[in-house]
């Protein structure tokens, strides 16, 4: 992408909240904030990919100091325009490598944002970056979907997830490389607009190994933010890795 904001430039930022309206519903946001506030305790929270502040703003309203990292100035500008937007500190940069001052009791990546890092190395770098920011006993939380490869019969690479007279949306998988993309075709006034956003899907066990490389260890894993058990039929997971309090070296 030539845009300095990556795939979340002005045109995407302008409609992001409306396009993702379901994720802004209190029934989605409140359990997420409850979970993160409990882990933060009296400490600070670091959100990677803070975006327009869907989680950062209500978490800050709970009294948790929140700092965010995001590449998109356009998305951050939307955050700033909201009530309380100036209360959330933001550093512009790639959250896989960008460092900020201080330490945090919790860092988090929600709504599949870990997959915005499109190489395994970048995802590994992200874990190491988080580990460097966490205080001993601090936690790293990721919410991410399970790749829907069970929906792919032999020879098929495409999984549709929305079909209507004015919008088609589908994921394309490359199982050899774990590359995927989400693709959208929107039709308005007889004209179509196509957008494709690349991702790299990642398995729970792979994330656990990345955590281990960064000196973190798995503390808990759930299907969702309210503690539903993670099972073979789960479509997503909320995982928490902890930085040990009594070990030295990287991540310790």
Automatic annotation (TrEMBL):
InterPro entries: Methyltransf_25 (IPR041698), SAM-dependent_MTases_sf (IPR029063). Residues 46-138 form the Methyltransferase domain. One of its GO terms (molecular function) is methyltransferase activity. GO terms for biological process: methylation. Pfam families: Methyltransf_25 (PF13649). Keywords: Methyltransferase, S-adenosyl-L-methionine, Transferase. PANTHER family: METHYLTRANSFERASE, UBIQUINONE BIOSYNTHESIS O-METHYLTRANSFERASE, MITOCHONDRIAL. This is Class I SAM-dependent methyltransferase. It comes from Streptomyces yunnanensis.
């Amino acid at each position: 992408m030539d845009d300095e904001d990556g795939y979340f430039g002005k045109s995407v930022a302008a409609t992001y909240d409306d396009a993702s309206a379901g994720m802004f519903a209190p029934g989605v946001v409140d359990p997420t904030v409850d979970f993160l506030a409990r882990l933060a305790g009296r400490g600070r929270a670091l959100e990677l990919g803070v975006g327009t502040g869907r989680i950062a703003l209500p978490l800050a309203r709970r009294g948790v100091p929140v700092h965010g990292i995001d590449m998109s100035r356009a998305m951050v500008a939307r955050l700033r325009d909201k009530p309380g937007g100036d209360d959330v500190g933001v550093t512009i940069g790639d959250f896989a490598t960008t460092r900020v001052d201080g330490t945090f009791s919790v860092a988090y990546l929600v709504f599949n944002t870990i997959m915005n890092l499109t190489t395994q190395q970048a995802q590994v770098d992200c874990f190491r970056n988080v580990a460097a920011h966490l205080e001993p006993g601090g936690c790293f939380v990721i919410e991410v979907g399970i790749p829907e490869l069970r929906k792919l019969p032999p020879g098929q690479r495409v999984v549709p997830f929305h079909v209507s007279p004015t919008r088609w949306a589908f994921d394309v998988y490359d199982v050899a490389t774990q590359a995927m993309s989400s693709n959208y075709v929107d039709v308005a006034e007889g004209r179509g607009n196509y957008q494709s956003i690349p991702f790299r899907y990642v398995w729970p066990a792979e994330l656990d190994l990345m955590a281990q490389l960064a000196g973190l260890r798995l503390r808990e894993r759930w299907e969702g933010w309210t503690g539903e058990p993670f099972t073979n039929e789960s479509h997503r997971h909320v995982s928490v890795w902890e930085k040990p309090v009594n070990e030295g070296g990287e991540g310790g």
